[in-house]
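Q&A log
Question type: sequence-to-structure
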Amino acid sequence: MLQKELKKQGDFLFLHRGSLPLLILATGLGVFILSRLYWEPAPFLQTTAFKIISLAVALVGEGIRIFTVGYTPANTSGRNRFRQLADEVNTTGIYSTVRHPLYLGNFIIWLGIAMLTENIWFILVFVLTYWIYYERIMYAEEMFLYNKFDEVYKKWAEKTPAFIPDFSKYESPKLNFSWKKVLKKEKNGISAIFALFFVFDFTANIIEAGRFVIELNVWFYMAAATFILYLILKYLKWNTSVLNEKGR
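Response status: OK
Response body:
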């Protein structure tokens, strides 16, 4: 049955979903290098203004993730690598407007990264690939939640869009916003965004100069600052209880 096949594919892709960003990055960087060496992107795509727009897009995606994670209880909306995990169904806050806000945030983050390639065709292929990939993951996740929570999940899912938010349905979150949980859970994503923007800028500088060169510009300093923040938060997470918060 197609349902079983989609579930099987979704479970497999969920288990290996960390591979997609690496594939996007490697392919996108290759397209970017080819564009700079052999093709001629539209002039605006090579400007600092377009790069700032790309960063803004990526930060909007990270903002969605932060807003989502900050209001959720423990054992929900996590970075569970090996299996589905949920102690309850989130139905308030951003979850009252869309069923998969974290995947929506991921899409917008990676759209911002894809824009750095300066290649319209790559951006379009990225959008299509992301949809096919995450559609199956979302299906597998929804089947898990439906099987575990039955009518509670069904009642919420029937009135809540899967991927495009309906803000007219917004309900205030049950919990207060937790910066501790955000800092603990989202340090990787924040650091990765600025690191990738530096990588693309670094690659462009090498192509233009024809030699290995590190330009100490805003992209370098933002990447360095967020990496240092990542190390500090990593230390606090594993060696102290500063970021711990009961029930979050």
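Response note: The chain is about 65% helix and 0% strand.
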